[in-house]
Fold:
Amino acid sequence: MPKIPQQVISLGILFLIAIGGFVIARKFFIPHSFGLYGHYRADAVEEIKKQEIVYAGAKACYDCHDDIYDLKAQSYHKDVACEVCHGPAASHVENPDGVLPPIPNDRKGCAICHDYSPPRPTGFPQIIEARHNPGKVCKSCHNPHNPTLPHTPESCSACHREIYMKKSISSHASLECATCHTVPEGHLTSPRANEVGKPQKREFCGQCHAEDAQVSKDILRIDLKTHGERSLCWECHYPHDPETNT
Structure:
C-alpha cells in the first residue's frame, strides 16, 4: 500500500479543522428561527409587527386632500409620495387638527432630486443649487404639486444640465442649442410631446467645417467629400464635446 504524502495529510487536517469550525460557528451564529418560513429569520416578522407605524401612505392623504391629488396626478410629481416631502403622517391622520405635517420651507429637499448629478437621465430637470436663484425658496417660483406650471424653463440647461456642462467647456460653447436643433414652440412647457429635431445629414456640419465654409478661418476644416466617407459626423464626434472623439 503506497504511503500517503505528508503534505496531503497536513491539508486533510486543515480541511477537517475548517469544516469543523464552520459547523460549530453555524450552530452559534445562525438564529434558531432561520428557515422556519423561508430563507430569512422568522423572528424578524414579529419584531417588525411591534414597531410603531409612522407612515400613513398616499391613499390616506388623498382621502382628505383630493384637490391636491387631482393637481398632482397630472404633473411630473404624480409618482412622488406625499410623505417624501412632508414626512411621516400617521400621527396626522389619527389627529388631523392636533398634529400638522411639516411644510418644507428650504431648498435642501428639492435639491435631493434636482441638484445636478451626471448619472441622472437626460431631460430630468437639474440645477446647480448654489447658483440657481440663491436665497429664494423653490416654491416661490414652482408649485411643488405641479412644478411645470406656471413656471417655464428659461433655457435648455434647466433640463439638460449634463449636456450644458459638457458643451460649456468645448469648442461649441458659443453655439446656441437652436443652432443645430429645431425647437418646437411647445417644447419648453411640454417637452415629451414636442421633441426637438436633430440634424440628419453631414452637410449640416459642413456649413462650418467644410473647406469652403464661409465662416471664421479659426474653425477646424475638412474635405467633406473624403473625410469619413459616408459616415455621419456624429458617429465619430460627440457634437456637444467634439474634442473628446477627435
